[in-house]
């Protein structure tokens, strides 16, 4: 088992490298890099997309990830030295000066010249820094990427942790109950309810909750936005717990509703497959109680497939669905951080968070295998290899 885990950890490196390489390559084809974003704002266009749509061939010429000179959108009227400084600051170029030059490196000096950094070299520099867990600073916020992630982490942890926990606490007992009463009226109407919940889009359900329970048109039982109240610091410990739970009811409900169907039906079908096997009939023939058969024999085997789905469910709830929920409920978490970084072409935040989340996802996959062995010691991944 130790050798298998070691191989899995070693596979993290090439897998993460491939993820970063593909996404780095894709960003080179997206118009409006960080330099264009700055120049578009200075030019009063708002963002690079508006400038591209109204600038014809100039927009096409300026659509690279940081290449070009006076072809940049909004570059008219700006000194070339300013653009060169932006490109150097964002890591797209470097200024080389002749030996013996003691002044400030600038293309305004005849002894200096600008050299664009090749894409592969830029990618190598970025990955070298990331392997040392040096993620740099945001282009537009003047704060380290790690500090920015830690600042937004409480919101996403709250949504992901509670949504996953509630989904498992409800779906697994419900799935077991449905398996034990397969074909009954209880099985039929609960299946209808969870399928309807799965069919409702998360953002639509979130808006419905706001309209009904957050003062939209009916009752104002829950707060409209935020993770805590304005008087959070002045509350007692119990008051803080209640206030936090009060704010989390609606967003957690909205983010959890769609995950019930998959997990409940997965649990039900897994238990049905095990209940119909020969060893269950043998255990019942020996006179064991139904609870002993169900939880002493069936549960361990049936839960394997449920545990296998844990990484995908956790990652999807933690990262995938957080953007819409955070936007609707005005929560400043990792989902909004990633979206804003993509829109603003804030590459350190974009690639830094991608590296961190990708690494977390791969590690969670390994932990899932360890949970497999913990639930059923008969599984030997080393022998399978």
TrEMBL record:
Which residues are in the ABC transmembrane type-1 domain?
153-372
Report the GO terms under cellular component: plasma membrane
Superkingdom field? Bacteria
Principal location: membrane
Q: Where in the cell is it found?
A: Cell inner membrane; Cell membrane
**Pfam families reported in the protein's UniProt record:** BPD_transp_1
> Does the entry feature the keyword Transmembrane, yes or no?
yes
Q: Where is the signal peptide?
A: none
Segments passing through the bilayer? 9-30, 155-176, 188-214, 244-267, 302-329, 349-375
What is any one GO biological process for this UniProt entry? Answer: microcin transport
Task: Provide the topology term for how it sits in the membrane.
Answer: Multi-pass membrane protein
What keywords appear on the UniProt entry? Cell inner membrane, Cell membrane, Membrane, Transmembrane, Transmembrane helix, Transport
**What protein family does this chain belong to?**
Belongs to the binding-protein-dependent transport system permease family.
Q: What is this protein called?
A: Microcin C ABC transporter permease YejB
Q: What is the lineage of its organism?
A: Bacteria, Pseudomonadati, Pseudomonadota, Alphaproteobacteria, Rhodobacterales
């Amino acid at each position: 088992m130790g050798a298998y885990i070691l191989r899995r950890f070693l596979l993290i490196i090439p897998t993460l490298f491939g993820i970063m390489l593909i996404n780095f390559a894709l960003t080179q084809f997206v118009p409006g890099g960080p330099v264009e974003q700055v120049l578009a704002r200075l030019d009063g266009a708002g963002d690079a997309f508006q400038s591209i749509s109204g600038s014809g061939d100039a927009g096409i010429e300026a659509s690279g990830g940081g290449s070009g000179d006076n072809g940049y959108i909004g570059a008219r009227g700006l000194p070339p030295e300013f653009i060169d400084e932006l490109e150097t600051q964002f890591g797209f170029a470097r200024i080389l000066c002749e030996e013996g030059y003691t002044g400030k490196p600038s293309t305004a000096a005849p002894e200096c010249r600008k050299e664009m950094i090749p894409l592969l070299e830029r990618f190598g520099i970025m990955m070298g820094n990331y392997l040392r867990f040096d993620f740099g600073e945001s282009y537009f916020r003047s704060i380290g990427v790690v500090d920015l992630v830690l600042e937004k982490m409480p919101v996403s942890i709250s949504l992901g942790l509670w949504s996953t926990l509630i989904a498992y606490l409800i779906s697994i007992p419900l799935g077991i109950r449905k398996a034990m009463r397969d074909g009954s009226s209880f099985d039929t109407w609960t299946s209808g309810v969870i399928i309807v919940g799965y069919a409702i889009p998360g953002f639509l359900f979130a808006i419905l909750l706001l309209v009904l329970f957050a003062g939209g048109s009916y009752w104002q039982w829950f707060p409209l936005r935020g993770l805590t109240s304005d008087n959070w610091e002045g509350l007692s410990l119990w008051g803080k717990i209640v206030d936090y739970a009060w704010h989390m009811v609606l967003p957690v409900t909205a983010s959890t509703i769609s995950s019930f169907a998959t997990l409940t039906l997965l649990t039900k079908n897994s238990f049905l497959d095990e209940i119909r096997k020969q060893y269950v009939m043998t255990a019942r023939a020996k006179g064991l109680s139904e609870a002993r058969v169900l939880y002493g024999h069936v549960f361990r085997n049936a839960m394997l497939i449920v545990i296998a789905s844990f990484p995908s469910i956790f990652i999807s709830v933690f990262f995938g669905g957080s953007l819409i929920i955070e936007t609707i409920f005005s929560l400043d978490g990792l989902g909004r951080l990633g979206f804003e970084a993509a829109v603003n072409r804030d590459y350190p935040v974009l690639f830094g968070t991608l590296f961190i989340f990708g690494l977390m996802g791969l590690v969670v996959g390994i932990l899932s295998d360890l949970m497999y062995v913990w639930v059923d010691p008969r599984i030997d991944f080393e022998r399978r290899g």
